[in-house]
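Step 1: inspect the first sequence and its tokens.
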Amino acid sequence: MESNLRTIIKAMTWQLLGLLTTSLLAWFHTGSVLDALTFALSTSATGFAFFFLHERLWARVRWGAGEERRV
């Protein structure tokens, strides 16, 4: 099992990679760096919030979460 710090660093670098790629794509489509950064930051924040809600909802679902197999 990896350390908490390693997991946090991996999550941060993954998020930065996502921000960079989204910013570049948005810049290509809009021609505006400011619009691209605003779009990338808003999608990142929205994605974070919905991922959190998604995880909390799945935490309530018992299916596949280590329950014993019924034969």
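Step 2: inspect the second sequence and its tokens, then contrast the two.
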Amino acid sequence: MIKKMGYHWHLRQVMATRGMFQTSELVPLLADRGVHLSREQVYRLVTQPPQRMSMDTLAALCDILDCGVQELIEVSVVEQAVRKTATGSAVNAGTPPQIRRATIRWPDLT
């Protein structure tokens, strides 16, 4: 079994519990804490799980929302079954093998 790490981003829910429903409300609050993001960047931060985020931004969000990191990010572990092939490489057991079309070419006898 291989453990694959994942996470769920709860910024929108945490904002709603604090009475913040507009993503634009975060822009000046972040700027007060030295984090300067455009409205579009803040919108993406709220509506989509970030792939990368600075620690300054995370700390500012925790301060603004008066919450801990664990309220914003829920870490999850997904275990995947893996089987070994004859060559020794690992293959995901839940994935069917790739199908390739064969092309038969007859030798040119002329």
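Step 3: confirm your contrast with the notes below.
The domain at 1-110 is CATH 1.10.260.40 (434 Repressor (Amino-terminal Domain)). The helical segments are 11-17, 26-32, 39-47, 55-65, 69-72.
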